Amino acid sequence: MSPVALRADLQAIADLIQPGEKVLDLGCGDGSLLRHLIETKQIVGRGVEIAEAKVLACVRNGVTVRQGDLHEELRDYSDGSFDTVILSYTLPYLNDPAFIVSNMLRVGQRAVVSFPNWGHWRCRVSLLLTGCMPAAPGDPQPWNEAPRARGLTIADFTTFCAAQGVRIATATYLQGTRRVPDRFDTNLRATWAVFELK
Amino acid sequence: MNGSNSIGLVETHYFTFAENELLALESGETLGPITLAYETYGQLNDDHSNAILICHALSGNAHAAGFNAPDEQAPGWWDDCIGPGKAFDTNKFFVICANVIGGCKGSTGPMSIDPQTGRPFGLSFPVVTIGDMVRAQTHLIDQLGIDKLLAVAGGSMGGMQVLEWAASYPDRVRAALPIATTARHSPMLIAFDEVGRQSIYADPNWNRGDYYDGPRPNAGLAVARMIGHITYLSEASMHVKFGRRLQERARFGYDFETDFAVEGYLRYKGNRFTERFDANSYLYVTKAMDYFDLSDERGSLIGAFANSADLIYLVVSFTSDWLYPPYHSKELVSALSAVGADVSYLNIQSTWGHDAFLLEVETMTALLSSFLDRLLKRFEVTAP
Prior knowledge:
The structure holds two protein chains of two kinds. Chain A is an alpha/beta fold. Chain A has one domain (8-118, 152-197): 3-Layer(aba) Sandwich (Rossmann fold), CATH 3.40.50.150. Helices cover 33% and strands 24% of the residues of chain A. Chain A has helices at 8-14, 32-41, 52-60, 70-73, 97-107, 121-130, 154-164, 186-189, and strands spanning 22-26, 44-49, 65-67, 82-88, 108-116, 168-175, 178-180, 192-197. In chain A, strand 6 (168-175) and strand 7 form a beta hairpin. The longest helix of chain A is centred in the middle third of the chain and has 11 residues, at 97-107. Chain A is globular and about 45 Å long. In chain A, 44% of the residues are buried. The model of chain A has no long low-confidence stretch (mean pLDDT 93). By secondary structure, chain B is an alpha/beta fold. Chain B folds into two domains: 13-185 and 293-378, Rossmann fold, CATH 3.40.50.1820; 190-288, Rna Polymerase Sigma Factor, Chain: A (Orthogonal Bundle), CATH 1.10.1740. Chain B is built from ten helices and twelve strands. Chain B has helices at residues 130-143, 157-168, 187-201, 218-232, 235-241, 261-276, 279-291, 326-338, 356-359, 361-378, and strands spanning 13-17, 23-24, 30-31, 34-41, 51-55, 82-83, 88-89, 94-98, 149-155, 173-179, 312-318, 342-348. Chain B has an eight-stranded mixed beta sheet, sandwiched between helices. Chain B has a two-stranded antiparallel ribbon with strand order 2-3. Chain B has a two-stranded parallel ribbon with strand order 6-7. In chain B, helix 3 (187-201) packs antiparallel against helix 7 (279-291). The longest helix of chain B has 18 residues, at 361-378. Chain B is globular, with a radius of gyration of 21 Å. The model of chain B has no long low-confidence stretch (mean pLDDT 96). Chain A binds chain B through residues 46, 52, 55-56, 58-60, 62, 64-68, 73, 75-78, 81, and chain B through 312, 314, 330, 333-334, 337-338, 340, 342-349, 363, 366-367, 370-371, 373-374, 377.
């Protein structure tokens, strides 16, 4: 079976993973990322996902998955039981991001977080010109649809990490599928960010 | 005999062991010789690595799939999931199902003849546990030449046997599928079982279990079964299945005949049960469930699975199952996660209550067949 084509941010996450790692993917969706990592890097993978259809898709993808709410399930894992804990595009949907991020770093040696950047210039211009809350870059979900995403920007997240005492080890910024270098205007230009936390 | 993808005609086999060396039971008693009734479906592959043991629930038996006779009315109890192309695909797997000890469908139980007296055991049959049932199954697996089962699967009391296999014989199983079950029988479950037992004790025909020469305690057994059936449904499923519909009447009878459809259902199910189940077996098997508890004195399940972290688990519960509520399964999943086991878990959306494990065939088939295919790949299991 050929490896599954990955979303750009997932590819950026996959590039951070070393062969044979033990990986926990929180909000793992249909298990595409874990399946890709199992097939290409022989990792030991575990996923947590809340939606029944996606859990079934994970099992179809040969991925180990638990149905449940991250806020509850994370408590079960013992300290340092994973090399990497991944949170891809789930951060905007969390009730308690501080709890989740601190527990990711408790159960994992490191955490990898990816999210769309509402600080992108199109979002800013959209709010200025239309007066409507901008949707996430690349995701036209209206504000009233569930699950409700709470928008955040790269600047919001780095401020949050500083306040939580979380060290950002590496940062990867994407504009669509293309990587962009970190500059003074990254928060304007990047549509996605991938942070490696320790 | 009908139905597509049926395994077709199957035969019940009997295996007798513990003729010289009696089986030591958890109670301290011994039992032997012991006969197990069992059926198998599909073919064992060359290296005997494709065997799956199915464990049955309280009223089940070894006849899990196919038909024992061409004119049999209904197929085996889990025929929806066992057969060619089904969840437990008999083109790929060698599927085994055995009647539990203490049962009354061919395996040694209280209605068997006591070799000491030449009469049925009745209450002189020793009390057995889920652990004893599983220990007896290990002898059958030995006899079939299987060193390591690919999987053990079962719902309800079958799920308890699955957990017992995982906890007590981790080196003889690769994967465990406990479905709609618990690692610790709850006080509510014990309470329902006790009401069922009390209704049997209260039947004058019961005669302290010594009734095999005379009329049987059918009234008591029927009431026990009716209580059971209520707990297998949900309020929502009873609304859908019966509502307040009347049974063969246009208006209330203002008498004590059957008014409501739900009454008719319970009476029918209760009476039918007495034709196929032994009251003493009901006492023994419910008692075995009540004793089941894998937790330690602090209520933790982690110790029970500390040496069973290498198995692959699929835990399944159902949202409307109030008899074995999803939180029992979640507790199990938490313990398995804590020991680092490879555990998958799904709480399937269903309105059918505890019965959902037999009724949600589509979701179960999708889930189980994907999971079992992963095992085939993972352990490089060859086709039979």
